[in-house]
Design brief:
Blueprint: H1 2-14, H2 23-48, H3 56-62, E1 125-126, E2 135-143, H4 149-158, E3 164-167, H5 169-172, H6 176-184, E4 188-191, H7 204-222, E5 228-229, H8 238-248, E6 251-253, H9 268-278, E7 284-288, H10 292-307, E8 311-312, H11 315-332
Parallel strand pairs: 1-6, 2-3, 2-7, 2-8, 3-4, 5-6
Length: 371
Amino acid sequence: MGTILWTLWNFDILAGNAVFSCSTARVNFRLFRLSLLAAAMPLVAAADIKLPDAAAPTEAAAKPTLPPAAITPVTATPPAAAPVVPVPGPSAAVPASSEPPLEIRRAIAVDEKAPVVSPPVSKIVFTRCEVPAPVIAITFDDGPNPDHTPRLLDMLKARNIKATFFMVGRCVVTWPHIVKRIADEGHEVANHSWSHPLLTSLGNTSLDSQLQKTHDAIIKACGKAPLHYRPPYGAIGMSQRKRIHEKLGYSTILWDVDPLDWKTPRNSKKVEDRILANTKSGSIILTHDIHGTTVDAMPATLDALIARGYQFATVSQLIELERETASTVVATAPAPVPLTPEPTIPVVPMSTLPPETVAPAQPAKAVSVDE
């Protein structure tokens, strides 16, 4: 290559001699020199290019390579360490894949259990029950009464209605045969204290005695233990109701329908109208089987309730229906259903209380609890 350039240089020197004094000849000779240079350039380029082996083009075409920026060197990691996955830079060219992306889901262990929904908290005070069906409970207080309770039992039996009787202890020991009939005919027996006092005015010792003596008397009369109690006048303190629940397992049963059948002058039609106007599904109806006007109102009242589609249950049955309904709602709902808070039980002033309505016991027929 050097020889060629040297020769062309000498030709250029010759063009400047007197032999080549003609300007036209000088130009033509320089054009000839440029053509030689043009012809020699491919040979110069070929001398600087190093071609790959014969198999290289085929292999390179078969295996395309990523640009250098897309290649991340992988270094060896200790066996205990988690593998390090290289992440290409933003400018890296990642080849497109024809396969659809995989959906990654969390694996559930075989022994993994579904979250447990806590059951509803047990209530110990009821004024009514939350039930979907038209079911109600009718209750009778202050008995048994030798004149009116047997007549009432005949009315209930004729209509296949089960009721709950909250009985006073001193009446229980006076007429135990009526208590036994109440239980034998499928009605529920319940505690209404021994002598119908205002329980909020009693100490713990007197409170325990009022309920325990009545509890024992009911068991002796009919062989069944009461599960609930109703405080006289509906008055009971919060600490008292908790104490009673802990000692005897009793629930406090109040009411949401009160026909005021104890008020004078007593009227059977008013009793019927007030019950029909206020009763709804889950209601607990308060009445007194020691009043003749109340018992007289029962046939028309019960028939009207049946005509409206109501079904009768004992208090325990109504409470159980509410608990079953609440359990079903909790099991199917995405979140626990809050329970209705327990009602606040007012303390009734002594000045507003009705007169004593309990039938007087007959000492000659009284049966001692200790017998």
